[in-house]
C-alpha cells in the first residue's frame, strides 16, 4: 500500500500526475486526444518525460460541461488504460465520477480512482472499498453544470475542511483504509478566483494526516493570481506555490515544464 506522503518526501518534490483528457470538450485540450491511439501516445510521452502518475479521463468537467453517457466514457478511457497498463508499470488514475467506469478501468489496469464527486456518486464508495485502491476525494461545490454560477459563500477553508472531515469519516466507516484516501481541495470547482488562491496557498492545512493533491493547471484563476503571465507559466508558478505549501501530488498538463521547475 503506497504511502504517498512518504514517497513524495523521498523524492524531495510533489509527485507529478500527467493529465490525459480523452474528451472532445476539455477546457484546455479538448479533442486533441479523443482518439485512443493519440491519448496513449501522449501518456507514454509523459511517462518518458518523468511523470509519476498518469490520469486518464473521458468526461469534461469544465464549467458548464454536459454529462456524457457511460458507454461513451468507457469507449474513450478503457482502451487507453488497458494499453497503457500493458506498456508501462506507471500508476494509472481513472478520472471519473461514475462507479461503472471506475470499476472497468481498475479491471483494465488502473490503480487509483480520481473522483470529482468525492465518492458521493451511486456505487462509487463501494467500488473504492471493494477494490482497495487509493481514491482521490475532491471537494466540489455544486455540479459541473453550475460551477460558473454557484460558488461557495463564507469561509471557503472552513467549508472545505468540513467536507473533508465528513468524507473521511464516511469512507473509513465504509471500510476504506486511511492510506488509500487522498484529498483534493477542488481548486476552480464552484469557488471564486480568490477562493481558489486561498485553497492553493492553504492546501495542506485543511485536514492533517492525509496526502493532498493539487490541480491548478491552466485554470482561469491563474490570470488573477499571476497577472500578465501566460497560462502555462502561471501553471508552473502555481505548482511552486503548492510545493511550498506541502502538496504531495500535483496534477498538470505540462510534465516537462513542471519537473524543470520542481528540480531547479
Would you kindly provide a brief summary of this structure?
The chain contains 10 helices and 8 strands. The protein has 264 residues and is an alpha/beta fold.
**Roughly how many Å apart are the termini?**
30 Å
Please tally the helical runs, counting DSSP H or I stretches of 4 or more residues. Answer: 10
Q: How many independent structural domains?
A: 1
Biggest β-sheet, characterized?
8 strands, parallel
User: Would you list the SSEs in sequence order as H and E?
Assistant: HEHEHEHEHEHEHEHHEH
**Mean pLDDT, rounded to whole units?**
92
| Strand count | 8
- Principal-axis shape equals globular
Radius of gyration: 17 Å
Strand order of the largest sheet: 6-5-4-3-2-1-8-7
Low-confidence stretches: none
By CATH reckoning, the class would read Alpha Beta
Percent of residues in beta strands?
Answer: 5-15%
CATH architecture: Alpha-Beta Barrel
Counting helices, strands and paired strands, the structural category is alpha/beta
Looking at this structure, what is the CATH superfamily? Dihydropteroate synthase-like
Q: Which fold does the CATH topology refer to?
A: TIM Barrel
Helical amount among residues, as a percent range? 40-55%
Task: Compile the SSE list and pairings.
Blueprint: H1 4-11, E1 15-21, H2 36-49, E2 53-57, H3 70-87, E3 92-95, H4 99-108, E4 112-115, H5 124-131, E5 135-138, H6 156-174, E6 181-184, H7 193-201, E7 213-214, H8 222-225, H9 231-245, E8 249-252, H10 255-263
Parallel strand pairs: 1-2, 1-8, 2-3, 3-4, 4-5, 5-6, 7-8
Helix pairs in contact: 2-3, 3-4, 4-5, 9-10
